[in-house]
Description:
By secondary structure, the chain is α+β, with helices and mostly antiparallel strands. The chain is 34% helix and 28% strand. It has 15 helices and 21 strands. The strands form 5 sheets. Strands 8, 12, 13, 16, 17, 18, 19, 20 and 21 form a 9-stranded mixed sheet that branches.
Amino acid sequence: MEYNELEKIRVEKIHRMRAAGIEPYPTRANVTHTCRAAIELFESAEAKGDPTLPEITLAGRLRSIRPMGKLIFAHIEDGSARLQLFLRVNEVGENKLEELSEYYDLGDFIEASGTLFRTRTGEISLRVNTFRMLAKAITPLPAAKDEIVDGKVVRHATLSDPETRYRQRYADLAVNPEVRQIFRTRTAIVRALQEFLDKNDFLEVETPILQPIYGGAAARPFITHHNQLKQDLYLRISFELYLKRLNVGMFDRVYEIGRDFRNEGVSFKHNPEFTQLEFYMAYADYLKVMELTEQMIVHVCDKVLGARRFPYGDHVIDVTPPWRRLELRQGILDVTGIDIDQHPTAESLAKTMHAKGMNFNPNYPRGKLIDTLLGDYLEPTLIQPTFLYDYPRDISPLAKAKPGNPAITERFEGFIAGMELCNAFTELNDPLDQEARFIEMGNTYAEDDEERNPIDIDYLRAMSYGMPPIGGFGMGIDRLTMLLTNQRTIRETILFPHLRERDE
């Protein structure tokens, strides 16, 4: 490490502390309460009129230091709350006050013992009788700003540059409590999803991340190699084909929440590594899954937000069922004037799109042209919760065809705030049809097309043992967190998002 001048000063303090017999990184801490628990302890005793409180020991990061002669006010913050320390020469001694002034800086972790009381200004504080360093911070936290907290001016560090925040998430979390709250909310969302699915008799499972054949989604995989087996493996792009194998094995309702990896572009709603929920429900179709999706999102909002209406950007989203149902064909027709049913080939559809001055890749097959119409024109208009349903067969290779119309499948996607949230099918369970579609997909897409998947023979073998009717569902946890925390980029909901390399 190359240290700047400020960091060098702090490194020198470490050496001076050790020379004075003070260990800046002791092995153990002796904490008895979090800051929040200490505040609640005092408020409870105060409400009961009980003046006697035990001595307690707190720890946290130094947020402020205000010397006032023989008295020092300081604030520490742990993961739960912030609390004031009251250090007076009468209790801690002159040498300790000098030690604090000489060696301690904002950002250091400190342990302090004493009793709680309320100052004349009304702030709950710890009257310190002893303290010590727990961890000396070499790098100062980002620049300070003043903030009004409970009518008082509190100075603390802040960090606002997005690039720096994402690259140094540890500093971002340390100084921005609102960022920490996003990830607490994310954890609450996952727990609420698990609670809902568990109560609906789903079994949570784990499937392989390293897979010999990738599939279950249209995406380019990451490739790795197993040295001992001399075998190329793929980081999974979806859980789907393994979870449906479990339906064959008589687990009627299964779900997994975990990481998927797609070697694709990075955007405000895409990250190469992301968290997904998928569930598969025997004896259900996409209509039942629509109903379950509404109930699940409502359950999450009730548990996490305590409300079914929440702000997102300039909109107020209302997830109260029933959600709008819109046929994909009709939706595209409404916003573009193009009836995709009138264009059964890629050439015909591309000609019409070109005539309307649309931007698209002229080499795309028909399915990807339809995806372009959906993503570029229809999706941004879907603000309130909407199920877009009945997708063409050529962009839904794992979905069952609608009875009487083999060109259309029983598939829906859920959209909120102009963004896709979830994807679901009545799953194809005919092994002969599935094999034919795999072959068709292989013939339709070029060898180097990122959406071209290999044929998974073992999955076809599993289907051949008999696969029950299944309703399947997938949803991005990162995007759901974006919605419920009012964030405009997925990077705000991933602790360590992928970024381009840069020279430090």
